[in-house]
Amino acid sequence: MQSIESTALEPTRSELAGLTTGQKIARYIPVYGLVILTVGLILLFSILLPNTFPTLLNLRSIVSDKAIIALLSLAAMIPMASGRIDLTVGYGIVLWHILAISLQTMFGVPWPIAVIIVLALGALTGFLNGLLVEVARIDSFIATLGTGTILYALALWHTGGRQVVGILPDGFYALNGTMIFGLPITGFYVIAIALALWVILEYLPIGRYVYAIGANPKAAALNGIPVRRFVIGAFVSSGTLAALAGVLLASKLRIGQASVGLEYLLPALVGAFLGSTTIKPGRVNVWGTMTGVIILAVGISGIQQFGGSFFVEPLFNGVTLLVAIGIAGYAQRKRGAAGKAAVPGPAPEKTQKN
Fold first, then answer.
1. CA 64, 65, 68, 72 torsion-angle sign
2. Contact 109, 168 (CB under 8 A)
3. CA-CA distance, 97 to 251, in Å (whole number)?
4. DSSP labels for 42-86?
5. Distance between start and end Cα atoms, the chain
6. Which residue of 199, 225, 227, 343 has the lowest C-beta tally within 10 Å?
7. By the 8 A CB rule, do 176 and 185 touch?
8. Burial category of 262 from C-beta neighbours within 10 Å (exposed 0-12, middle 13-18, buried 19 and up)
């Protein structure tokens, strides 16, 4: 069952043919509007907050705070490309960051093995989600909500509501704490993964198959695409990437607690949904998702530096999510109406006069 319909709305060459330069610019503004808005916000805050916003310290803080959200947004984006949604990216990170620490402190597992175990469990969770959606035919929203709630319950049971604390190896701390060119290494993880996903989705057959499934799974199946295999693979990829985010969160926090993690779900979904409104409107895409995460990070950072209250971040995330979904829905309806108008109707019959 589908939870999301994926239909690309970026202008095609045939649509742009014959348009004037002004008309082409007008056609591209909705496509790159979010990118333009992001650049505008950066310039605005840099002018209004010249001593704090356009600084390396602020950039370092943004990258450190939002790298986990960026990874989760990319994780959520993969099933969305196939027309499904994965809510376990927000619930699972609670259990994954706790396990990454408790395996080392409570069971004495070396940190590389602990990381591999967590990644394997994340992949297994994604595989189970894929089975629930494709084999049991449960809607992906309901299936992943149920799976995510179970993961959260396991985290509460494992910790007993207490923090998991212990001395961890320096190598594990270095996964998040290393600096490259003055910036946290987590930012470079995000760039590398985003580039890999961009190449896979845009230039390899597997990406075309996933997008075809998201647009019309029945048509994809009729064209010989193994829909079930690719959807399950999308959930496995999402679960593995979410587990990686949990490992990095554990390396950053250095403690495990069940009260941490759920706050990442909403901004991660906001970033992924925003990604479907820009660059390739109507279709989730890597650079659109990255733009969505950046505009969230920039907006929240600027507002907080102006003295915004503690409730500003969830309020900003919630409003932005509603706006993103509204824009995506409006764009799809407008494109659908234009497509219907372009279809010629039956020619009227000519009558002969006697």
1. negative
2. no
3. 8
4. HHHHHHHSTTTSSSHHHHHHHHHHHHHHHHHHHHHHHHHHTT---
5. 59
6. 343
7. yes
8. middle
Q: How far apart are CA 170 and CA 174, in angstroms?
A: 6
Q: Which residues have CB under 8 Å from 174's CB, separation 6+?
A: 251
Cα angle 190, 193, 257 (rounded to 5 degrees) comes to 55
Q: How far apart are CA 68 and CA 322, in angstroms?
A: 22
Query: Tokens representing 51?
Result: 């001593």
Is-contact 258 98, C-beta < 8 A?
Answer: yes
CA contacts within 13 A on the Cβ side of 211: 21
Nearest to 195 by CA among 270, 89, 115, 289: 289
Instruction: Give Cα separations from 335 to 80, 84, 322 (angstroms).
Output: 20, 22, 20
Could you tell me if 268 and 75 are in contact, meaning their C-beta atoms sit under 8 angstroms apart? yes
Tokens found for residue 45 = 């805050």
For 346, phi and psi rounded to 5 degrees?
-65, 135
Tens digits of residue pLDDT in 298-345: 888 888 887 766 677 777 777 777 776 666 566 556 555 555 554 555
142-184, pLDDT tens digit by residue? 999 999 999 999 999 999 888 888 889 999 999 998 999 889 9
